[in-house]
């Protein structure tokens, strides 16, 4: 079958040449067949049908009588000869206006057509039987499927994909849709354990007052329609798929089925609940489509049309199959993406400290922001490590990259830093050993790190830097300064020395450690960002006055607010430390010679300190525990033993000696003369511990005041 194309230079027969475009866009009016086979201009052949099947008569010219079904026009053959004929499957002429779906030539003998309102196009109400609705042609279905699958594919998470399916099908394809998904959804190759349960994930329907042309119909609220009540009743939340049941067989069949088919009639009560299947419209007004992912069925979709609307056709089953397939594959993709995002979040969370320690003389706050939602892991980290002598180590670092590898290297370096800090090494030595560790991990393992040790007793801080941005110190009066710290080389370069500097850390001051993601982006260089950070800290301090430093948590939030829309090129780690310090009047420190009289002298010194601080109620416990710990120290020490008492929110006692072996708690036998000292410490003290130093060890315990 061939088709005669029409161009603007060659007007159609029976159409005004001045209205070539309008003639195609208007619905042709049917003509009464009065001319016989011997019509004017020798019409003896039928006009070819554009889609095959019965040939349709050509439209008559103005003032002429149309030919009969078996006639044709010889003049038209002289204009549009065989050399211009095109097969039906060929692409349409790009210069030819595309007719609307309603512009279908009428069959011979059909009733005259009338104007169709938007409400009639949407619902089918008021149309004569057999009137074509949208998507009555294969081309319309293909265009709809293409647009719907593109909308579904735009979603990246589960809710977006399911919403895309609902919005794409309602109202173009159906009046309502119910989407059921397995609960829980299987991930990858996981084999579900237990019965298959479907949960109603989302429903959608046509709003009564809305028109598909984009307007709203100003009609009064009518009485409830029985069809509307039926659609609203289909809201069974959970459905258990019985093995070997009718619903299980339909889902295993994969292909969509009409709701009035024998298989669907048996499966719908199981899906919707007993009695609710009566609300489903009959006569092919509902389609049940299984949702099959890459390996298994993950749910089902129920497409519904109102009883007064035209029923689904056999070709609509293919449309439903395409929608179900693309949606199921998209849901599989979203579930896998969600699992990967969960793993990334858990990896990053476990790599960073869950809670910052409660250190003596310092308050801490922290923040971490990933570079983007699509890059949730990175190499930035921060840490706060309690050290002997009430000190605390503050660490912040940045491994190059934003991948799982960067996060894994960051975790190894953080663990190494914690181990080195436990040895009480100087900051520069810690960075040196981190550099060696990075070289053992690989030749391209680069990172920056800043390691600082704060001593609340001396109010001093020692800082060593390995290629990291310098810290900013906010003083109590509101002045913010960038500390002058030697930059050093990044960790992993190898063969370089690191230098440490010791600075004052006055009480009330706040030290801010951060990674370069806070101050560097495509819109600004690192030093411009550091200056903006300094100004932001100074402006925030002015809000609380010169005698009251800003709260740490609010200060961290204010710092992050300086980030603009284009400033999130890297992940950000932020650690803020407020120095409270310990007043000299709250510290008592002595040296004891390793002799037999040392325990008695230690008891007398401790008693006097407690009396001076007004803590006489702790005298008995402190004397007993100090005597036991000092006795154990002088037994093995060869140099003077140190004794220090600290009064903060608790009473802390520290005893140091030059023996590196750490004491261990053990259960003494009844015949043993010793071995009960640490047992008493463990029973009476709030906390206790032992830490190895480069010059020996420190045994400490705490008592509640």
Defining traits:
705 residues, alpha+beta, 6-stranded antiparallel β-sheet, 5-stranded antiparallel β-sheet, elongated, disordered N terminus
What average pLDDT do the residues reach?
Answer: 77
Termini separation: 102 Å
Structural category is alpha+beta
Strand order of the largest sheet: 5-4-3-8-7-6
Characterise the protein shown here.
This protein is of the alpha+beta class and 705 residues long. 30% of the residues lie in helices and 20% in strands. It contains 16 helices and 23 strands. The chain has helices at 20-25, 74-79, 118-123, 138-153, 158-169, 226-233, 246-253, 262-272, 314-351, 404-422, 427-441, 526-544, 552-560, 598-613, 619-636, 677-684; strands at 2-3, 86-87, 176-182, 196-205, 238-241, 257-258, 286-292, 297-304, 362-369, 380-387, 391-399, 447-455, 460-466, 472-474, 480-482, 500-504, 510-514, 572-579, 587-592, 641-647, 650-657, 687-693, 696-704. The strands form five sheets. The chain has a six-stranded antiparallel sheet with strand order 5-4-3-8-7-6, sandwiched between helices. The chain is elongated and about 105 Å long. Mean pLDDT is 77; it is low at 1-113, 129-134 and 210-230. It comes from Streptomyces hyaluromycini. Residues 111-123 have a biased composition (Basic and acidic residues). Keywords: Hydrolase. Residues 362-579 form the PPM-type phosphatase domain.
């Amino acid at each position: 079958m061939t088709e005669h194309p029409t161009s603007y230079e060659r007007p159609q027969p029976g159409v005004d040449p001045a209205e070539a475009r309008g003639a195609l866009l208007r619905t042709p009016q049917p003509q009464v067949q009065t001319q016989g086979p011997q019509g004017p201009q020798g019409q003896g052949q039928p006009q070819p049908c554009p889609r095959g099947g019965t040939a349709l008569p050509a439209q008559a010219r103005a003032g002429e009588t149309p030919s009969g079904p078996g006639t044709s026009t010889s003049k038209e053959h002289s204009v549009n000869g065989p050399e211009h004929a095109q097969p039906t499957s060929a692409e349409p002429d790009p210069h030819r206006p595309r007719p609307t779906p309603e512009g279908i030539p009428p069959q011979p003998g059909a009733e005259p057509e009338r104007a169709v309102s938007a409400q009639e196009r949407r619902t089918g109400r008021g149309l004569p039987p057999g009137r074509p609705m949208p998507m009555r042609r294969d081309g319309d279905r293909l265009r709809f499927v293409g647009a719907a699958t593109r909308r579904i594919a735009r979603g990246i998470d589960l809710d977006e994909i399911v919403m895309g399916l609902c919005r794409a099908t309602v109202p173009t394809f159906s009046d309502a849709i119910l989407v059921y998904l397995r609960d829980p959804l299987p991930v990858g190759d996981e084999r579900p354990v237990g019965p298959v349960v479907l949960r109603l994930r989302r429903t959608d329907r046509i709003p009564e007052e809305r028109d598909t042309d984009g307007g709203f119909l100003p009609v009064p609220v009518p009485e409830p329609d029985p069809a509307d009540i039926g659609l609203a009743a289909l809201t069974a939340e959970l459905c258990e798929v019985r093995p070997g049941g009718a619903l299980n067989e339909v889902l295993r069949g994969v292909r969509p089925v009409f709701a009035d088919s024998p298989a669907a009639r048996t499966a719908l009560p199981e899906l919707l609940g007993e009695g609710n299947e009566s609300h489903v419209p009959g006569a092919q007004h509902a389609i049940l489509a299984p949702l099959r992912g890459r390996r298994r069925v993950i749910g089902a979709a129920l497409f519904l049309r109102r009883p007064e609307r035209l029923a689904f056709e056999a070709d609509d089953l293919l449309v439903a199959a395409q929608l179900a397939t693309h949606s199921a594959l998209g849901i599989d993709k979203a579930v896998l993406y969600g699992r990967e995002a969960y793993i990334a979040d858990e990896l990053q969370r476990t790599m960073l400290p869950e809670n910052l320690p409660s250190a003596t003389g310092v308050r801490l706050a922290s923040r971490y922001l990933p570079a983007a939602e699509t890059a949730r892991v990175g190499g930035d980290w921060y840490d706060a490590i309690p050290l002997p002598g009430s000190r605390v180590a503050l660490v912040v670092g940045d491994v190059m990259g934003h991948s799982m590898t960067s996060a894994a290297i960051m975790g190894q370096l953080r663990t190494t830093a914690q181990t080195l800090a436990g040895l009480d090494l100087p900051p520069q030595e810690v960075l040196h050993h981190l550099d060696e560790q990075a070289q053992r991990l690989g030749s391209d393992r680069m990172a920056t790190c800043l390691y600082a040790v704060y001593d609340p007793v001396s109010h001093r801080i020692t800082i060593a830097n390995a290629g990291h941005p310098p810290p900013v110190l906010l003083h109590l009066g509101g002045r913010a300064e960038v500390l002058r710290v030697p930059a050093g080389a990044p960790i992993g370069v190898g063969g370089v020395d690191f230098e440490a500097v010791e600075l004052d850390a006055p009480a009330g001051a706040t030290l801010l450690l951060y990674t370069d993601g806070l101050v560097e982006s495509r819109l600004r260089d690192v030093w411009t960002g550091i200056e903006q950070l300094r100004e932001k800290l100074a402006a925030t301090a002015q809000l609380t006055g010169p005698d009251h430093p800003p709260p740490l948590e609010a200060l961290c939030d204010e710092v992050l607010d300086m980030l603009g829309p284009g400033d999130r090129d890297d992940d950000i780690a932020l650690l803020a430390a407020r120095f409270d310090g310990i007043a000299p009047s709250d510290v008592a420190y002595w040296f004891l010679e390793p002799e037999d009289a040392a325990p008695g002298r230690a008891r007398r010194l401790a008693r006097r300190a407690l009396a001076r601080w007004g803590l006489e109620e702790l005298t008995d416990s402190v004397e007993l525990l100090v005597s036991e710990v000092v006795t154990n120290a002088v037994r093995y020490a060869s140099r003077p033993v140190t004794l220090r008492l600290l009064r903060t929110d608790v009473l802390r006692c520290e005893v140091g000696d030059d023996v590196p072996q750490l004491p261990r708690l053990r259960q003494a036998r009844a015949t043993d003369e010793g071995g009960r000292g640490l047992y008493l410490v463990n029973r009476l003290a709030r906390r206790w511990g032992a830490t190895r130093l480069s010059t020996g060890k420190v045994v400490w315990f705490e008592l509640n005041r």
